[in-house]
Amino acid sequence: MAVLELRHVRYLLAVAEHGGFTRAAEELHISQPTLSQQIKQLERALGVLLLDRSGRTVRLTDAGAVYADHARRALRDLASAERAVHDVQDLSRGHLRLGVTPTFTAYLVGPLTAELHSRHPGIGLTLTETTQDNVEAALLADDLDVGIAFAGTHLPGITATALFTETLSLVTGAPRAQAPPGPLPVRALKDEQLALLSGDFATRGHIDAYFTHHRATPRITVEANSIQALTEIVQRTPLATVLPDAITHEHPHLTPVPLDPPLPTRTVALLRRESAYQSAATRAFTHLTHDLVQSRGYTPPP
User: Can you tell which superkingdom this protein's organism belongs to (predicted)?
Assistant: First the structure.
């Protein structure tokens, strides 16, 4: 049997991803004939056809799909092994790949980054803001070390550790002295115009479910994909929005308006891939995150 090298595996995966040799060769910076020759070497070594070249698009055969699945996992494990070898236990250097859902960039990412830099200035940080589904997929693909999102139903292979309870409130830009004396009945929102996060945010789904359950039909005048945009809009218009209390508390020009019944709470959680290698940087970040949410007085999880 011929000797297999990692490049053979990477070449096969590139062809499978691009559906052909031309674009794969461009990405790999090798000639197309060389790429084709290397894939044939791999097929001869394994004694099986891995690619179906009969159509306009090159596809994995059944055997190729099985091999590619194992190959991806093997490359992921090798990448983890490399990080483990280079991991510095004294935290004089290191790197952390963090994924968060967008609302946390408005009140949690800044303090966490400041605390990480203060405690461990040698650790670099790569921050990705995306949806919870993407955070979990990236964790499973070993593209992230840890994620901050919400507890609940997760993709297989994801484990969640509760951090704190997040409370949402209706928010306006009116002076706090003008806030209603008691909670506002949710059905009174039929007369309100709201600015809310767009539908691709988990928070928006949480809000919509609350309105639907209580048969409230406020008028959604503005939709935005940015918390910062919402806070600016609410401060400068009569529109109201719904924000986590932690954000409202940091904006003195925003006034929370309790609803009756109140919006349901959510549990914020640290996410990671089960059985994934945890670097010293990851362990340090996990520890300081628990310290920070406790020191800031966030409501403990149920």
Answer: Bacteria
pLDDT digits (tens, 9 = 90+) for 241-286: 999 999 988 888 898 988 999 999 999 999 999 988 888 899 999 9
The tokens describing 100, both together, are 């968060």
Give the list of residues 6+ apart from residue 248 with CB closer than 8 angstroms, or none. 169, 171, 254, 255, 256
Q: Find out if CATH 3.40.710.10 is the number for domain 90-163+267-296.
A: no
- Please write the tens of the pLDDT for every residue from 170-198: 999 877 556 667 788 998 888 789 999 98
- Among 3.40.50.740, 3.40.190.290, 2.120.10.30, 3.40.50.720, name the CATH number for the domain at 168-264: 3.40.190.290
Q: Which two tokens stand for residue 99?
A: 């994924």
Contact between 164 and 269 under an 8 Å Cβ cutoff? The reply is no
